[in-house]
Amino acid sequence: MEAAARGEPRPRPGPRVLELYSGIGGMHWALRESCIPAEVIAAIDINTVANEVYKHNFPSTHLYPKTIEGMTLDDFNRLDFDMILMSPPCQPFTRIGSQKDVLDPRTKSFLYILDILPRLSKTPKYILLENVKGFETSVARDKLIQTLESCGYNYQEFLLTPTCLGIPNSRLRYFLIAKLQPGAFCFQTVNWILEGFPHHERDDWKQSKLPSSDQTLSTGDHTEKLNNSECGHADNSKCQEMETLIYKLETSGHLERKLKQNNNLSIQMIQDFLEEKLQNPSQYLISPKVLMRYALILDIVGLTCRRSVCFTKGYGHYAEGTGSVLQ
């Protein structure tokens, strides 16, 4: 006889997940792609535009259009969640921002979470947090670690970029995963930040040197022309699209790093991620006027390249430092 027929509660199919700072649902989608049998039982975000997109993507998920501080301890307890996914506001920690850290009003909600966590009637078993590089040196991060340790979590910190997964884009981000004791990870945790996945043993997966803050900048002190080898092919015919226009103001260090990235065969080519039949592609073309003016600072990549720089919200509005341009 089934448990429901006997009047007994059915066993949970998997963790009940609370998604904080839910945005358009990136964490939710990643969880779904992981094939973990989990259920996002609630999402919280104050951004009205993002919430509309979230509701379109996940219409069955209960979405709270309010601030996290607007949720009381009782509200959180009623949700009865086992896992927290969150990506707190990154502006207080960005390398090009004011770096006010916990003095920035935008950290208020995160500090509220840290205050709530030890007082929950049921401590969640799992936590995943994502933020920008810079968070790892912040006071907010120190407060997070103190809270996790006082609550009895095992945890590990990472600085990872999509190239770790073979994706041709450099977007260095901080990640923290935490598991409530006695739960343990399938790898040995360490008290320093890992710069790669611990289960990969092959040399080509070890990220011994991730791009530093100055390596993400797009300007330097002299002009170089990237040759055909930038695409990582010995056959120059495969890189003909690169021959005409790839001039850029760069240091020799930047150029050497790009050549190394494009010769890394563990990373897929950009063409592997492009739509095959794009409707009205002309709308995405950069005008000759813009090219003439900004060719020396645009980060231009070809179909067979294995790298691109981090895309920002300024992409399409600013030429420098906002993302790569496809030739």
UniProtKB/TrEMBL annotation:
This is tRNA aspartic acid methyltransferase 1. Residues 204-227 are annotated as: Disordered. The keyword S-adenosyl-L-methionine applies. Pfam families: DNA_methylase (PF00145). It comes from Callorhinchus milii (Ghost shark). GO terms for biological process: methylation. One of its GO terms (cellular component) is nucleus. Keywords: Methyltransferase, S-adenosyl-L-methionine, Transferase. Belongs to the class I-like SAM-binding methyltransferase superfamily. C5-methyltransferase family. Residues 209-220 have a biased composition (Polar residues). The keyword Protease does not apply. GO terms for molecular function: methyltransferase activity. The active site is at 90.
